[in-house]
Amino acid sequence: MTLEALLDAAEDRYPGVAAALIEPATTPDEDSTDPDAIDFELVDQHRGSIHAAQVKSGGSGTEMSAPDAFGILLRMVRARPRAGSYRLITNMRLHPKAVQLNRALSVDDPHELREHLQRLMERGRWRDEPAGMSDDELHRLGRARISVDSRQRYQLRDQLRERMRRLRNEHCRSLGHESAGRLTNYLAFEIHRRASGEFDGVFPLEGFREELLTPGRHLAYELGEFDWGVMVGAVPAAPDVPRPDLIDRIRAALTSGGRERTVPTCALLGPSGIGKTSTAADYAYDMADSYDHIFWVNGESSTSLRSSFQSIHDWLLRRTDNGPDTDSSRLRDRVRTLLSSSARPWLMIIDNVVDRRLVDPWVPTSGRGHVLITSTNQVSWATQRAKVVIRSMTPDQAMELIRMRLHHEGDWDADSEGTAAALAEQLEYWPLAIELACGHLAGCEFGLREAGRYLGQIRDLALNDRDAIPHGYPETLVGAIRLALKRLMDKEELQPASEGAAHALFPAAYFASRQIPVWLLYFSTLMSSDNAVRSGLRHPAVFGPQAKVPFTAHEMHRALRAESLARRDEPLCTLPQQEWSTAHCEGVDDTINVNEIVQHVIRTLAEGRTDVSEILSRAAYHAQGWLTAFIEANDDKHLLAILPHVQSLASHAGRLGIATDTLAIMWGNLAGTYVLRGKLDDARQAFENELEYLLTRKEPAPVLELKTRSQLADVLRNTGEASAVWLPHLQRARDLAFQLADSRPEDVSMAVANCLTVLSSHTGQGALEPEAQALTADFASLRQRMPATQSLRIQHEIGQINDALTTGLMTDEEAEQRCRTLLNDDGLRGPQRLELTGLLTESLAYQHRWNDALEHLQTIHAYAVEQPLHPQVIAKTLHNVGLRVGLAAACGVPECRTALMVLIGEADAPPAPECQQLLSLLVSIASRMAVEHLSLQAGVTCMPFKMQTLRLLEAVCDREHDAIREIHEDLNGLDAAALDREDEFGWRLLSQVVSASAVSMRLRGD
Hints:
- This protein is α/β, with parallel strands linked by helices.
- Helices cover about 60% and strands about 5% of the residues.
């Protein structure tokens, strides 16, 4: 209470206060014979009492009577006769007569107050006291009040912390959650020191203010870090010219009331280049004192959203070992839950949202936070209640920006001011247009004096191509972009880098707008696919400082930034060098961003020319090369960073109806990426796009068609299509394979192996159709003729081991030995190593060697934590090992053993403890996977039901009754129809046994 009173004084709620006296015995001008009557008081500079207080606490349900309250107040007014006001503070409930006493204290007439007191005290121990009180004492009592404070300690603590945060923010001093607690504890300690007699109980208000407003760097030093205004993500730099009018509107929109735990969302809307992103960044920096965390999210695509949310998730759980989550919906829900439960205020900025439907599921709705969204799509946000439409700068802001960019010491006069004002007006106060103009004029000999000529040039350029001016954008902006491009072409002093930068804008216009890798752009500009092949270029390529090139990537980058056509962006990846993948080299992470309106204008120029297909093809060649390199290196972070650029190229190619061999290959590699990530529907679309081009190509491309059909057949089968849909692709692949067997044996060998893998997995589901049987025989005979590369030999052996474990044609010990031999090969590709580790774990589980199996399953678990790739391989391991481990673990539970004896008349001996550890690890891996990823392998049915059965078995083993009830109820809603098939006997038995045991435990309640 003393701390709260000091905060009141610091906020000037008690004018004239100079200090607080804590547990005062007397004041300098009064000699009290009742030193315990006052707990604390606020005094002026001469120690005159302004406000005296007494605090009385009671236990839960206790009541304060009117006589008790009157006695305390009477002691207070007699102990401090000159105090300006008195207050009795209690957490006890007031008796009805005590409530009447509190009302009576507001009576101005002392005689009327005496009558009220006599009536209230007539039966109490103070019944004679009112009659003997002087008018002066009654006047003093009229300045007293009783306050009931029913707040719990935690509520009081939280409110004090928030008041301190607010007060510090008003003085531009920040305070985070932990530092607020640290400061509260420190100030309470200082109060207790004075209560024990130190400093004569005096806490000067100036000293309190000084402690309260201690510099943030001192608090951060005590904590070891700042715990407020922490920015997570690629927050851009604050704009050079603030726009406080917009900041005020955003602040009002986000703090306009609403439910306490509902997260307000405000949309910043406006065309590209108007300053939405810089305004959002300005708000983040301006209001950093009000938030503990500021999260910056790239909302341009589903991939960028997932990547940003993974970064937020990792930050919020940075003290745990949680790895990446492969399920976007679960990742989204985890972050939303973490933010909802956080006691700390936060701000999330979702930048560059293209489609509201894409971002809506990601927006947090509960917690102590605010959400700010930027978007050019005003129609999409028409129903948004809180929105701020960003328009051009004010004339004063535009003038300030021009002065900042072009003002040099001593060369700014009234003429300059007038010219700048005219320039700003002609550019319609558009921020990007002003930046482009200043970039141009800064490089001119006469600077601002050439503004008139500059305006004439950009108008002429805009009028020459009015179709390039998007609706809602000023023609001067489009002209400024075109002139900046022309200037790059004509800059003799920076050639050839300047001209190279101009050409680089064309591929940049077809990439995603954010985080465009500088070296990817460099090679997309400089090197054709033919030259890259001839030179043996390996992606991702970066030239060293000794390379003999016409210009460097750094020079190209600098030229683009000099004309304000691009900006430096956040790196693709910030991992320490010791964690780099084999494809990660110095310079790969350097990126730029290009404004969307710049991209639009450049695309309009490009699409009026004849070489758009060349621009797209060259960019596609290098982009898919980077993608493939990161796939082969198992570098998921870079793969996800490059993927939006490949997707953007594919989207523009589709929009323009452009198809080339290079673009077809990019479609295929994009499809392969989708397969690795378990997105089979997207993979199917990409393969079908590739195949459509190949079938309409003037000259046949049998090799590409062979590869595409074999891979598409696998995707179609795994998405559940009937054999009538995918068998024709294999039939055509067979014909092509025979045709190419002599001329392209290695390509044919790989395709044949893929086709046989598809047919082999189909074979396990029952009798083959005659067409499938014929295909299998043809591909098998063809394989005998083909050269056996090391990779194909390994793939063939993996297929044999897999078949043997399914059919029993090989002992478990033989399967184990062959797996171990293959795993010793350092040349194994990542997917092959992962699949072999799964098969080895399966063979060990069949032998009941639980400890050895646990070791290898832990390797798979580590992979699942670090890499969201190859989910179908992991799902297959979960399925096969899960059944073996589940049946063994069930034998260790009495209820399960009983059920087994009833159902099949036998049960194995209870397993070693490591078996249950294996079960828990299987459940852990399954919990990290998206539900749709569990069912990617054709023929592996009812996976959600099967994995839930393992979860239930784990709960049964641990006898966790709440979990048993919850999981068992969820299990009943999952599809298990396919378990009736003959080949599903094992899982059908396990589910029956586990469910029976769960029911038994729930009925007994033990």
